[in-house]
Amino acid sequence: MRAVGWAHSFPIGGGVEAGRRWARERLAGLAWTADASETVDDILLTVSELITNAHVHARSTARLVLAWDSRCLNVYVADTGPGLPAPRGPEGLATSGRGLAIVDAIADEWGTHPTPHGKAVTACFHPPGTSAHDG
């Protein structure tokens, strides 16, 4: 299969729910997702966390790209916030601050990258039964 991808921007008001719905609709078109509900759930949780981070921490529209390259489903979320984020431990009874730690725990690979107008966080998810070296 050749690579496929989709892109959409989600403004601060209502972007997280809309982003999850949009991502679920795109993923439904990939044959492997029918047998990989846990991976799909992990991808949707990552979309939620990264869009939330763009809205809350960068106070920015989130630009979401999903791309399937026959090896992994790539999630890319860019915003206009300065500096690169890093996972941090939860602070006491804080109800936030765990987004990147969650992504770190569920993604097969992830990273942060500066962009010309801010930053991006990427995460890669391999379908069950494949590895980073399958293609």
Automatic annotation (TrEMBL):
SUPFAM superfamilies: ATPase domain of HSP90 chaperone/DNA topoisomerase II/histidine kinase. Pfam families: HATPase_c_2 (PF13581). Keywords: ATP-binding, Kinase, Nucleotide-binding, Serine/threonine-protein kinase, Transferase. The keyword Magnesium does not apply. Residues 36-124 form the Histidine kinase/HSP90-like ATPase domain. GO terms for molecular function: ATP binding; protein serine/threonine kinase activity. This is ATP-binding protein. The lineage of its organism: Bacteria, Bacillati, Actinomycetota, Actinomycetes, Kitasatosporales.
